[in-house]
Specification:
Layout lengths: L3 E4 L2 E4 L2 E2 H8 L3 E5 H15 L4 E6 L6 H9 L3 E4 L2 H9 L7 E3 L6 H10 L3 E4 L2 H14 L3 E8 L21 E2 H13 L3 E7 L10 H19 L6 E3 L16 H13 L8 E4 L3 H4 L3 E12 L4 E5 L8 H5 L5 E3 L8 E7 L8 E9 L5 E4 L20 E6 L2 E6 L20
Parallel strand pairs: 4-20, 5-6, 5-13, 6-7, 7-8, 8-9, 9-10, 9-11, 11-12, 12-13, 15-17
Antiparallel strand pairs: 1-2, 2-3, 4-14, 14-15, 14-19, 16-19, 17-18, 20-21
This protein binds ligand LLP.
Length: 423
Amino acid sequence: MDYFNYRDGVLYAEDVPLSRIADEYGTPCYVYSKATFERHFRAYTEALGGHPHLICYAVKANSNLAVLGLLAKLGAGFDIVSIGELERVLKAGGDPAKVVFSGVAKQPHEMIRALEVGIKCFNVESRPELERLNRVAGELGKIAPVSLRVNPDVDAGTHPYISTGLKDNKFGIPVDEALAVYELAAGLPNLQVKGLDCHIGSQLTETAPFLDALDRLLVLMERLRERGIEIEHLDLGGGLGVPYRDEKPPQPFDYASQLLARLSRWEGGEALTLLFEPGRSIAANAGVMLTRVEFLKPGETKNFAIVDAAMNDLIRPALYQAWQAIVPVDTRQTRESALYDVVGPVCETGDFLGKERELAITEGDLLAVRSAGAYGFVMASNYNSRPRAAELMVDGDNCHVVRARETVASLWAGEALLPEGGR
Ligand code: LLP
């Protein structure tokens, strides 16, 4: 559930009409709802109840400082994949001791910074990475806490681009090699084995793949235990899906209760700390992208609604053929309804936000692209030299600018002309 609802025919974010936001701050823009972020985060903590746990929000989903700060205040940990994400978390007041560091190729300078601030755990994805971390930690005179990201080879049943737990994905250590790599880790002097980690994919709409992965990890933990390697925490990654259209993904409560039931049958399961790295399920439906209709262009085979947002603002439809709801903000006027491809001004045929949408609109109308809070602004680019959109956060009847719209001059910040006369 989110806090974007119609009141008397106008779509609101909490207590603010989106039409007012568009008039005041311009379009395209991203609008987030603070209460929705809070609600989605709490759904996880409440689902886990008294079981020891840490919810490490996946920063990549939406890394705006206001979002991170808000979640940090609720006690969130963070899953990061770069030094940039780490610095964002610190800047927003996040606790480094609640940070886990994922990603297949952490650079030495990133490892150094993470060790200096004292993160909770490095989720290591390969042997060479383990060796690099051991060397870097040794040079600093530190012991690095590690978890191995194991690839359990389960089919998450999701889009191939966002499925990560299969044998032929680049992620993680194959489950049948994991034992040997754990033995290597346990023997390296500057590492301390803390956990076991997996992340099988994103936008999962069923619990079965998660439970399969858990079963495989528990078998591995049993073998590790026989070899005297104790695991303090089990990190099950992110991946819980959201309803974009008519999907009915499990709620965090169903997901957590099924996992806890499975875990309770395992010796020591009650004391095992569970970590989760949710991104989309916290952020997606906590945001919309607002865009205005520039022109309606009827065609022989298709009608186009050309809007002021484009693939550079929201790339999910173009990149994954992702479907996101597109709805009029103000439904009070009567308009003729037609089938439109909603497209942007970028010079690419793939520049669309939605195809064959039944919409009752006219030029100048506002549209909201729903479920845009995750993997929306963070994946935006300046393609076609388009300044990136503003980001706003609504809190009750207040609206805060949490990222100003980029200026045209900012487009070439850091660039330089060649010196006069060549050479
Ligand atoms: N942990 C790790 C190690 C991940 O790689 C990811 C996402 C997450 C957690 C968070 O997963 P979530 O709960 O958000 O599903 N850009 C794509 C999604 C890419 C997801 C990449 N990894 C999209 O727009 O659908």
